[in-house]
Design goal:
Helix 1 crosses helix 6. This protein is α/β, with parallel strands linked by helices. The protein is globular and about 55 Å long. The two termini are 29 Å apart. It has one domain: 3-Layer(aba) Sandwich (Rossmann fold), CATH 3.40.50.150. The strands form 2 sheets. It has a 7-stranded mixed sheet with strand order 3-2-1-4-5-10-7, with helices on both faces. The protein has a 3-stranded antiparallel sheet with strand order 6-9-8, covered by helices on one side. The chain contains 8 helices and 10 strands.
Length: 267
């Protein structure tokens, strides 16, 4: 971020009543994928880890259990109040755009659904790399939100249309909120140019029926973005219909494509 530049406004707020629900639904949608990725790089006892933008702390908690008493996990967030405490898990209120980075060298730095929201994302990747120890891993996961043909099954055309309208409004408003809808596929190239080796990307998505996972997450987002959606052309009755659709088991969607990119600092 350029010196003196004002940070862009994050689209959601951890202080809202709905925030705890939103964070829980994110975990229900993608925690299993994240754990599988971290297991694949063989996170083990004694590691020093930093979970950036830790949200509800579900990944940080899993990391703390995995690295054990001889390891240490730092979980940071702009508003870390949803992260539970435990012995080898330290929480930190931290803004990766402007605050000094922790020192000491990390075996793992993990950031999920963070950099897609931050215009200074490429600079932040370089700063993450500088905070790794030799041989340390950087794991970045973000959704690609440009592709919007997510409906897999629907009870009727009206249900499909109201959900599609919601997705299109969110995509149209993304630049104003600092979101790059196509950042996720570029992470591989940026991480290589930042000096990481063994860089690989996996693309993950799953199907979710109304009342589960990604459907509940979208419904939660409509609550948090209520006034913005009205300002962008939604009517109250349409929002009510959308929330009903997202609870209907006969309505099935794919989650957004999650690009998870892993790279290692040469030893």
């Amino acid at each position: 971020m350029t010196a003196g530049a004002a940070p862009s406004k994050y689209a959601f707020d951890n202080n809202t009543v709905e925030a705890a629900n939103q964070l829980r639904y994110i975990g229900e949608t993608v925690d299993s994928h994240t754990r599988a990725t971290l297991k694949s790089i063989e996170v083990t006892a004694g590691w020093k880890c930093w979970d950036v933008g830790a949200g509800a702390g579900t990944v940080a908690q899993w990391l703390a259990e995995t690295v054990g008493p001889s390891g240490h996990v730092l979980a940071s967030d702009l508003k870390p109040q949803h992260i539970p405490a435990r012995g080898n898990l330290e929480t930190l209120q931290h803004d990766v755009r402007v605050d000094p980075y922790p020192s000491g060298g990390f075996d793992l730095i993990h950031a999920r659904l963070l950099l897609m929201h931050l215009p200074a994302r490429e600079e932040i990747v370089h700063r993450f790399v500088s905070a790794l120890k030799p041989g340390g891993f950087l794991v970045l996961s973000d959704w690609e939100t440009e592709y919007l043909d997510l409906v897999l099954d629907s009870p009727n055309e009206a249900a499909t249309d109201v959900f599609s309208k919601f997705l299109k409004i969110c995509r149209a408003g993304s630049p104003a909120a600092g979101i790059d809808t196509r950042w996720a596929p570029r992470a591989n190239s940026v991480m290589r140019k930042a000096g990481l080796a063994e860089v690989t990307t996996e693309i993950h998505a799953g199907s979710w029926a109304g009342g589960t996972g990604a459907c509940l997450l979208h419904r939660s987002n409509t609550i948090q973005l209520h006034s913005r959606l009205l300002g962008a052309g939604f009517q109250e009755e349409e929002l009510q219909k959308l929330r009903e659709v997202l609870l209907d088991p006969s309505f099935v969607i794919s989650s957004h494509l999650m690009f998870t990119t892993v790279g290692r600092l040469p030893a």
